[in-house]
Amino acid sequence: MKNQKKTFVSRIDKKTINFLIKIIYIISGTIILFFSIPFILLLNSYNFDSIKDSFQITGTIGDTLNGVFNPLIAALAVITTFLAFIVQYRANQLYREDVDFQRFETRFYELLKLHRENVNEIEISNKYLKRNAFVKMFEELRFLYYVVDSAKDFYEKENNHVLSITKEQIIELAYFFFYYGVNEKLNFADFSKITIHTPFYIYCRTQIKEYQKIFDKEFSEEAKEPINLILNELVGLNEAIYLTTDFYPFQGHASRLGHYYRHLYQLIKFVVSSKQLKGVPDKYEYIKIVRAQLSNYEQAIIYYNSFFYAGKIWWNDTTIDLRSEDGNYISYFLDYALIKNLPFNLTDFGVFPSDKFKIELLKKGTKEEKLDAKMKWLFEWLGD
């Protein structure tokens, strides 16, 4: 990033001065050689006294040298003109690169500003605004995970049927309810993308609706006091899981997060796809600027979004014609450490990030002996 900000004049000096010095040495040597020719021609022996007798032929030699030097001087003039053209061409080329880079930075900061505006516009029931809204959304997501996770045990007992559902699928279904809510009618295209047994989906949806009924019964707009939805009152957990809320829950957040995710993805994709940035290190500097805008709760929600069908693009972006150094699709998580500042205390449910990231790194061919070093780079909490 720092190298990109050098002026094109300084970069001309750096890239061409050594080349010009070599050319000057060659031309200087050639000139010295040419002007030595008359002296060499007059030395017809090692006896310097005989030199004075050879001046009678200098007229002929002069004509000869004139015929030799004229083409050579013309050739040097052509070479000098060519060198001047090369320097000017390089200057124009670097100037265009600087103009393109300035356009990139202008566009980047415009997109960054748009991202900030999107965050500032997010609100829930006119009560939780901007980044505070992400806190409440995260709390709802966490509660939904435990609803789905505990519902699995009850479903299996009631139906005498063991479900082959992984933790990742439980997160996927919880995020599905979190994103779309339980009240809206979904089209088949959206529903078909989740990998959950349909009767179990209906079972979980029914359980979540029961909590909405509790909210309707206990919450009073006049009192404006938040209520606690307690998970173990319905599904019998040993340790109670609470959701404290003063707005109607589980209506979905697609209208808030859909816009947010699209613009965040376009911002990151713009940086990674940029031809003005030379290699991953330069691009990473700009990704760090983007990451600095993300709060802890935003990064946590983005992490859990990656288990949702629309969020898998954070792991592998197959929409752009780019590959990482290992030949795999670009991963914004693994190649650019997008959620490097993710606090692990916020990810105490579902699949722990360090476990998931190790699995994905191994899939991409990372060697076992390099895993620890890579993980320390990916998460600041794992650093020395």
UniProtKB/TrEMBL annotation:
<dbReference type="InterPro" id="IPR031709">
    <property type="entry name" value="PutAbiC"/>
</dbReference>
<protein>
    <submittedName>
        <fullName>Putative Tic20 family protein</fullName>
    </submittedName>
</protein>
<keyword id="KW-0472">Membrane</keyword>
<dbReference type="Pfam" id="PF16872">
    <property type="entry name" value="putAbiC"/>
</dbReference>
<feature type="transmembrane region" description="Helical">
    <location>
        <begin position="68"/>
        <end position="87"/>
    </location>
</feature>
<keyword id="KW-1133">Transmembrane helix</keyword>
<keyword id="KW-0812">Transmembrane</keyword>
<feature type="transmembrane region" description="Helical">
    <location>
        <begin position="20"/>
        <end position="43"/>
    </location>
</feature>
